[in-house]
Design a protein that fits this description.
Nucleotidyltransferase, domain 5; 5-stranded mixed sheet; elongated
Length: 363
């Protein structure tokens, strides 16, 4: 049996807005669906795939995006999402090809997504602090972020008394990138030496039982060491430990780079006083190591020493932020086809902002 309900939505003349449709209690402004329908679609969008929502509710996917934006706009008016903020995590995430980014802010204490907006620059982040207001900005005690210059400038301007903490993951990744540069150089040098050796030996193929030539063997050995150098020592397999020992014997320069990377990583596991001394020693070691990638890295470490030590002292990282990043990436895949980033932001806020929509007429 099919039931159809009909109701008039009269048009009225407003002195300010002209002729508009009168407000009705069962639908939102400029909506073609009832509030209950909108709320059901929003709940489904946070729980299941887009194809399931479209098939079940018999609407276009772009209509789902419009509904999510409306539901989030209403939800936002019912809750003060900026209340009680003290420790913030700030990061950016790519949501679309063509360098399209979202800047996002999370609350370290609750783990919820507080704010997100399209863009990755000072003006975008300043919008958040403008909405937060001077009084609440003064209450912020800690801010964790990567080394993006625009984040540092905006935070220093709006929260000058807040402790700024460098994200340990990003700092260690600097060292990993420097180590990878050393590894690539070692591999290229080994391949070049192998080619030069082959050229000197002249044409002809070695027999199957001939011993491997040292230059070629070293080049082949270095080809598979990337993940061995990336992994923490405690996570290495027995085979990988053997490979690391081989690196120490055959390429002391590359092994020294590995030790520098590990030395920087271990600093974040020390008490603050030990970490301060260890960081000074690490900077001196990197400065004298005669490995260009690490000599360059130590300059960045010196520039960010206060925020690195603050992260050690307060135990603050962007771990929660990276967790939210991972979930937003999943939401981005679900939201593929949304016409505007506002719908993506609305879906992220409904899913991760601590105010998930409920099914209508359910307690």
């Amino acid at each position: 049996m099919q039931a159809v309900l009909e109701a008039d939505a009269p048009r009225v003349s407003c002195r300010e807005h002209g002729v508009v449709v009168a407000h009705v209690p069962w639908a939102r402004h400029s909506a073609g669906h009832t509030c209950a329908f909108d709320d059901t679609v929003a709940w489904l969008a946070t729980q299941t795939s887009k194809s399931a929502v479209v098939e079940l509710m018999r609407i276009a996917w772009r209509t789902v995006g419009s509904i999510i934006a409306r539901v989030w706009a209403d939800t936002e008016t019912l809750h003060d999402r900026f209340a009680g903020l003290r420790r913030l995590g700030i990061d950016e995430i790519s949501y679309k090809r063509g360098h399209r980014y979202l800047t996002m802010v999370i609350d370290h204490d609750s783990g919820r997504l507080v704010w997100a907006a399209p863009g990755r620059d000072m003006a975008t982040l300043q919008t958040f602090f403008d909405r937060l207001g001077p009084e609440r900005c003064a209450l912020i005690t800690h801010v964790s972020a990567d080394a993006a210059e625009f984040i540092a400038k905006v935070v220093a301007k709006n929260c000058p008394s807040a402790v700024r903490c460098a994200d340990p993951f990003h700092v260690v990744r600097w060292a990993t990138d420097a180590l990878d540069e050393v590894r690539r150089q070692a591999w290229n040098d080994a391949r070049r030496l192998a080619r030069e050796t082959e050229a000197k030996r002249g044409p002809g193929r070695p027999s199957a039982d001939a011993p491997a030539r040292p230059a070629s063997a070293r080049a082949r050995g270095l080809k598979g060491v990337r993940y061995v150098l990336w992994k923490n020592p405690e996570n290495l397999t027995e085979k990988q430990r053997v490979k690391l020992d081989w690196i120490a014997r055959t390429d002391p320069r590359l092994h020294r780079g590995y030790q520098l990377k590990e030395g920087l990583r271990l600093i974040f596991q020390m008490p603050i006083e030990q970490a301060r001394e260890a960081l000074d020693r690490w900077v001196g070691w990197a400065r004298r190591c005669r490995i260009p990638a690490f000599v360059k890295l130590q300059k960045s470490i010196v520039a960010h020493t206060p925020s690195i030590l603050a992260a050690v002292e307060h135990g603050l990282s962007n771990g929660r932020t990276e967790s939210v990043n991972t979930k937003i990436r999943l939401i981005t895949r679900i939201a593929f086809g949304f016409k505007s980033p506002d719908a993506l932001v609305g879906l992220a806020m409904l899913s991760l902002g601590g105010h998930r929509p409920a099914l209508p007429h359910r307690k």
